Amino acid sequence: MAALDCQGQTTREINAAIKSLIAQGESRLLLRNPAARHNLGVGIVQPVELEFAGSVGYFCAGMIAGPTVEIAGSAGWGLAESMMEGRVVVRGNAGNGAAASIRGGTVVIHGDAAARLGVSLKGGLVLVGGNCGYMAGFMAQKGTLVVCGDVGEAFADSMYEAVCYVGGSIGELGNDAVVSEPSTAELAVLVELLAEHLPEKSAIPDFKKVVSGRKLWNFNKQERALWREAL
Predict the structure, then answer these.
(1) Which of 35, 58, 86, 159 has a CA between 20 and 30 Å from the CA of residue 42?
(2) Rounded Cα–Cα distance for residues 218 and 147 (Å)
(3) CB-based contact 86:69 (threshold 8 Å)
(4) What is the DSSP code string of 10-78?
(5) DSSP label at 199?
(6) Tens digit of pLDDT for each residue in 141-165?
(7) Is residue 115 a contact partner of residue 100, using CB atoms and an 8 Å limit?
(8) Radius of gyration for the chain, computed over Cα atoms and rounded to the nearest angstrom
(9) Is the pTM of this model over 0.85?
(10) 7 neighbors 35 (Cβ within 8 angstroms)
């Protein structure tokens, strides 16, 4: 594993060094002293492993397609935004907008996630071991969002074909979001996912499934009040 000390370097210098090491054939990189810098490890499209030995700032691992990113700390806003494929694991907490607009891959947050988790989700898998804030899953189109703890207000607001699972309490459902009964097969898949990514949470007994009620998928004059509230 190649090691890179981020101390005293700018974000641009660190990202340039990461790409230079990858070009030299390195497939595993350890980044020491990230010191919560913003925009680290963005735009990487090779199947490499990056390990940040500490917390990172805004937009870490944004727009990636292939890497496995481990963060031994917490992450700021916009973690893994617009990720195409790969895996991002945060051992601590994540700020607002984690996993926004991802199209594939897996984001695992062992602690809590702040507001707007998984907004405009277009695919992939997002798992949170703790709680999350308001407007998680807003306008999520596809993919799966799993929160083992509690979720805040406006959960799954204006959602499309994404599916959400909540192990704790729901502060408030968003517009057109409904709770449905998960099937035995769905619960079995959920247990497998937790055993793989969050084994300490695999014993949660009662997950609630949240999906779209589909009233907002097509405009209906009889549903004007619902549309007015959503907009």
Answers:
(1) 159
(2) 28
(3) yes
(4) -HHHHHHHHHHHHHTT--EEEEE--TT-SSTT-S--S--EEEEES-B-TTTTTT-EEEEEEESS-B-TT
(5) G
(6) 999 999 999 999 999 999 999 999 9
(7) no
(8) 18
(9) yes
(10) yes
